[in-house]
Design goal:
With 138 residues, this protein is α+β, with helices and mostly antiparallel strands. 24% of the residues lie in helices and 7% in strands. Strands 1-2-3 form a three-stranded antiparallel beta sheet, with no helix packed on it. Strand 2 and strand 3 form a beta hairpin. The N terminus is likely disordered.
Length: 138
């Protein structure tokens, strides 16, 4: 199996080959006129644009995938959630840099209510951007 790193760069709806991965109801307005907006790139072995179907195929044979985002960009988080849902493995581990080890038990035994999960993770109390934009990933 190959390791694959994938970077999501400046994302938005545009005439993009990755349109199937990008949510239809894009919300962010920042940098929407940038030429990289709406594009998805794989960065190994070289930086190349990736179409949604190719991306799904690439991630579903990988040992590890790194998905980048801007922390306060709600659309990036929704795309991350779609990519996680596209994985066809039975055993998937998602690593969150924002969850300290002392709160791992919350993820091991999460409350059924997503709002309660954010509170149990002390998300906003610990200074992270509003919980609702992270919810789709969890």
């Amino acid at each position: 199996m190959k390791a694959l790193s994938i970077a999501l760069l400046a994302l938005a709806i545009a005439s993009s080959p990755a349109r199937a991965v990008i949510p239809e109801n894009w919300q962010e307005e920042q940098l929407t006129d940038h030429p990289l907006v709406g594009r998805i790139f794989k960065i190994k072995p070289s930086i190349q644009p990736v179409a949604a179907d190719d991306l799904r195929e690439a991630i579903n044979g990988s040992v590890a995938i790194a998905i980048g985002e801007i922390h306060d960009n709600r659309d990036h988080h929704r795309i991350q959630a779609r990519l996680i849902q596209a994985l066809e493995a039975d055993d998937i581990t998602v690593v969150f840099e924002m969850v300290p080890e002392r709160l791992q038990t919350v993820l091991d035994n999460p409350p059924s209510n997503m709002g309660a999960l954010g509170e149990a993770l002390e998300w906003e109390a610990r200074g992270w951007y509003t919980w609702y934009i992270y919810r789709p990933i969890f």
